[in-house]
Amino acid sequence: MAMHGARDHDLVQALRRTVHPLHGAEDDFAVVLARALRADLVLLGEASHGTHEYYRIRAELTKRLIREGHVTAILIEADWPDAWRVHRYVTARPDADALATDALAGFTRFPQWMWRNADMLDFVGWLRTHNEQLPPPERVGIFGLDLYSLHASIAALVDYLDTIDPDAADRARERYRCLDAGGADPQRYGRLVTLGLREDCEQQVVAQLVEMQRHADAFLRRDGLIAAEDRFFAEQNARLIRNAEHYHRALFGHPALSWNVRDRHMMETVQSLRAFLQAEQRHGALVLWAHNSHLGDTRATEMHELGEVNVGQLVRQAFGRAACLVGFTGYVGSVTASDTWGGTARCMRVSPAHPGSYEALFHEVASGGPAPNFTVDLTRSDATTALLNVPRLERAIGVLYRPATERQSHYFHARLPEQFDFVLHYDRTRAVEPLEHAGTWSPSALPETYPTAL
């Protein structure tokens, strides 16, 4: 990193004195856990959708909170029906898959590696074993935050209604038939509506959600074997379908609009799940797993100037200090990603972070500091935090990685102390391992001298 004068030199020295080294010791995350154990919502981010360390450490932090009896549920940046299959497995329901690998088989939509990977498999297996030692009401579930499952959610909702009220199922089919004009591609529906070639289906999807909410108790009374959990699953599918219909129309408007619809849906999912669990007398914390771009407070980034909101901002506005926001950063390594949307997973080399970025700054700290990996406590009110709280570049790698346009594709300006409460920096990282290996994914494709592990 090119140093930016005496101010950055002083900042590096101050950070070396104040960061919390991560050596693999039992007390590595003590400062983060102390805050997280007082929080109602714990948001654990990631700087890419394909880095082993982010998945592994996020899982480890969650395990620690679960062992303390602090967690009621985990919400992940995944589709609701796909995550529901995992939920049934980890809570050992009678209708669950027999194996963890089968429970993850629902994640067929690109990018499959995001949840069908070795680290997720390890965590799901651990959670199942942990939950089997507890009575069902105390078991920790896994739920999906995202809204890309329009057709899968329609199918799941109609299937549920078929079992308890065939007439209600027929009404749902009729309402949702409005969405068939888009075929298998919901974006085609949104495009046709935007071009004025057909009317939207907003009235129909709202009507179905309202019916589900009005008749929730009746559904339960009609069949005592239908668990409240199943009813909530169905109602959430109706909520998702309403929001997904809005999202696919919003795709063809202002760029910030579809992002906001998506993140507001995620926040609505958090609030709905929390209300449901509390009604069931389950009052523990919720843990969220998603990308930094969703979980860091967007008001501290240049995206806010473009009109975007995100989950981190909405959570802080709703819960204040009862929320704990944790982000991750990395300097160099490898990542599982694709260079085209819908493409195959590749093990790709991650370029050294751009000069002037937080990642490059933290690399300087790591190079001469107490450890290559460390926690930065951004809740401290001191001169070091104040020096950090000026706009710098921050890297974000999603499911796509394009090194040729690294600066334009993967960086934005942010004020880290206002974005997160803590940041965990891992200087050298390696790619998360997909459960299915294609010829395009091979760590051996990287140079032999290139770091593949800590």
Helix content: 40-55%
Tell me the distance between the termini.
21 Å
Could you tell me the strand content as a percent range? 5-15%
Shape: globular
Report mean pLDDT, rounded to a whole number.
92
The secondary-structure class comes to alpha/beta
Strand and helix order: HEHEHEHHHEHHHHHHHEHHEEHEHEHEHE
| Oligomerization state | single chain
Q: List low-confidence stretches.
A: 447-454
Largest sheet: 9 strands, mixed
- Number of helix segments? 19
Rg (CA only): 22 Å
How many individual β-strands?
A: 11
Description:
The chain has 454 residues and is α/β, with parallel strands linked by helices. The protein contains 19 helices and 11 strands. The strands form 2 sheets. Strands 1, 2, 3, 4, 5, 6, 7, 8 and 11 form a 9-stranded mixed beta sheet that branches. Strands 9-10 form a two-stranded antiparallel sheet. Strand 6 and strand 7 form a beta hairpin. The longest helix is centred in the middle third of the chain and has 25 residues, at 255-279. The protein starts with a helix and ends in a 25-residue tail after the last strand. Mean pLDDT is 92; it is low at 447-454.
Layout of helices and strands:
Layout: H1 5-18, E1 20-21, H2 30-36, E2 41-44, H3 52-67, E3 71-79, H4 80-90, H5 100-103, H6 118-131, E4 141-146, H7 150-164, H8 166-176, H9 186-194, H10 202-214, H11 216-222, H12 228-250, H13 255-279, E5 285-289, H14 292-295, H15 311-319, E6 323-337, E7 346-350, H16 358-368, E8 373-377, H17 383-388, E9 392-395, H18 406-410, E10 411-414, H19 416-419, E11 422-429
Parallel strand pairs: 2-5, 2-6, 3-4, 3-5, 6-11
Antiparallel strand pairs: 1-8, 6-7, 8-11, 9-10
Helix pairs in contact: 1-16, 3-6, 7-8, 7-12, 8-10, 9-12, 10-12, 12-13
